[in-house]
Predict the 3D structure of the following.
Amino acid sequence: MAKLIALYNPPEDPDAFDVHFRHTHLPLVKRLPGVRDIEISWGPVMAPGGAGAYHRIAIYDFESIADLQEALASPQGQATGADLANFAGAGVTLLVFETEKI
């Protein structure tokens, strides 16, 4: 299994971010070839000691790193990546890794 985690920094306009994310970006993500599961944080992102550093966190599951890389290189992946400029101007950190259930 492989995951892509997107950590979105707090935007200037959280409401506009959420509307675009939910109604424009997520439909693009759902069309990525090979995406198996999508999890999104919708409440406040907290740290154990209080407020967290991120506005939204998204976790995308793929069968393998190869499938994930293929999805990102696809036309759908290119469109999804290009859409980040439309709502994630405060920045986003993308993490990619393989997982193992133990």
In short: The chain has one domain: 2-98. The mean pLDDT is 96.
